[in-house]
Write a structure and sequence with these properties.
Residues 208-303 form the Peptidase M20 dimerisation domain. This protein is α+β, with helices and mostly antiparallel strands. It has helices at residues 10-19, 25-36, 45-52, 124-139, 141-144, 164-170, 173-176, 230-248, 286-300, 305-312, 334-348, 366-370, 386-394, 398-401, 414-430, and strands spanning 61-66, 70-77, 82-88, 107-109, 115-117, 149-156, 182-192, 196-197, 201-204, 206-215, 219-220, 255-263, 270-271, 274-283, 320-327, 330-332, 352-353, 376-384. The chain folds into two domains: 10-202 and 329-430, 3-Layer(aba) Sandwich (Aminopeptidase), CATH 3.40.630; 206-326, Alpha-Beta Plaits, CATH 3.30.70.
């Protein structure tokens, strides 16, 4: 493995980017294509195919079908470090309401066989377009003369379920490509377009999701005395779970416990046999995470008052827990972040934020790095139209007027989001890829 070499100075990197502009028209069209043709997690076949055959990767050794529909391209350009740039590419089961002329009208069958709408409501289409643009720019003849090393571009499936990065690793990713010295990635967020933000330490939260089933004894709604009503048990669980953050988590720490779904029965006059709760947990420290998860299990298993109520109701079957998703904490390496931040500050100036708050969103990109004990850095870019953002900020209506990720109204403004996203990837990569230092 090649040692990390001295990278060009921040001003040299910025000059290189400014003096060799990329024609963005093609990537704007490509973004619209991906936005109009989203695919759910584990179904990214056409997205993967489009990426793998795109001319932006013509200089790369491309491999497909890694961990599902994962795609990687490797470009070796002399002796130097190996840098991995990653983008995710799956969409969500959301009905788009943006009104854009390239809005998604796609519907597909989900894993349960139901028909669901599909939308790129989290910006992964923008991530793919940005990485294709960055791959093309870094591989261009004039730019390749200015750096040396190995560049890996990785397009990851199944991020929304928190399993895609791990699946690629477990499918032998690092037997197929050189191990990177550094892993880099980004995400478009509800911030002013053109803004870039990163900090060392915890950048975004961990997430743990569960399907919890509590059991009762069904029967006629007119005869509750002969039944065990799981809706009552589930309702008590929901109320008790809300006390975890309020009474068991240090007020200086951050945690969120959400019951996103509670389902039982199909009729108003039938008491169901069971109730199913879908629970999501977000935390920003591992200690807090463990405390919250233990508290949920304790409450649901009736170690608290719910235990007594359930026993009093003669429950005959214990609750079951099924983990549905798990995202690790994303903790940026301090040395990598310092290097990337210096390059961003030099290139982006006042639009660079070196101290953003930790986000409660979650990611699995760190699995690409921690699986091989390598450092990583993950940053955020803004995607909200500047005039819209400024108006909402002035009127104190950001929460009301600015759509967030996973909203049916979320769609990054194409420019300057695309240009910013391409430049962040290029600037960050060049902060490590040693080469000639003249621009």
């Amino acid at each position: 493995m090649s040692p990390l070499k001295q990278s060009p100075s921040g001003s040299t990197i910025s000059n290189l980017v400014k003096n060799h502009p990329l024609d963005l028209g093609e990537y704007e069209d490509q973004y619209k294509h991906f936005h109009s043709n989203p695919e759910l997690s584990l179904q990214e076949k056409e997205t993967s195919s489009t990426i793998a055959s795109h001319k932006s990767l013509s200089a790369y050794k491309v491999q497909t079908s890694i961990g599902g529909y994962g795609v990687v391209g490797v470009l070796t350009n002399g002796d130097g470090p190996t840098i991995l740039l990653r983008a995710d590419m799956d969409a969500l089961p959301v009905k788009e309401k943006t009104g854009l002329d390239y809005a998604s009208e796609v519907t597909v069958k989900d894993e349960e066989g139901g028909t669901v709408p599909v939308m790129h409501a989290c910006g992964h289409d923008m991530h793919v377009a940005c990485l294709l643009g960055a791959a093309a720019w870094l591989a261009s003849e004039d730019v390749r003369k200015k750096w040396a090393g190995t560049l890996v571009v990785l397009f990851q499936p199944n991020e929304e379920r928190g399993k895609g990065a791990r699946a690629m690793v477990e499918d032998g990713l690092y037997d197929k490509i050189p191990e990177p010295d550094v892993v880099l990635a980004q995400h478009v967020m509800p911030m002013r377009a053109g803004k870039v933000a990163v900090k060392a330490g915890t950048m975004i939260a961990s997430a743990d999701s569960f399907k919890i089933t509590v059991y009762g004894r069904g029967g006629h709604g007119s005869m509750p005395q002969l039944c065990i009503d799981p809706v009552v048990l589930a309702a008590n669980i929901v109320i008790r779970l809300q006390g975890i953050v309020a009474r068991e988590v240090d007020p200086q720490e951050t945690a969120v416990v959400t019951v996103g779904s509670l389902h039982a029965g199909q009729s108003d006059n039938i008491i169901s046999d069971e109730a199913v709760l879908l629970v999501d947990v977000r935390t920003q420290k591992e200690e807090t995470r463990q405390r919250v998860l233990k508290a949920i299990k304790r409450i649901v298993e009736k170690i608290t008052d719910i235990h007594q109520e359930c026993e009093a109701s003669n429950c005959e079957k214990p609750p079951t827990f099924e983990r549905t998703r798990q995202f690790p904490l994303t903790v940026n390496d301090s040395d990598v972040t310092q290097k990337v931040s210096a390059a961003f500050a030099n290139h982006f100036g006042d639009t660079f934020d070196p101290a953003p708050p930790t986000a409660n969103a979650s990611e699995d990109m760190s699995d690409l790095a921690t699986a091989i004990k390598k450092p990583y850095c993950y940053w955020l870019i803004g995607g909200i139209d500047g005039e819209k953002w400024d108006k909402a900020e002035k009127e104190g209506r950001i929460a009301e007027d600015i759509p967030v990720n996973h909203s049916a109204l979320f769609a990054p403004v194409i420019e300057p989001t695309l240009k910013t996203g391409i430049e962040t990837l290029c600037v960050a990569a060049l902060a490590y890829l040693a080469g000639q230092q003249d621009s």
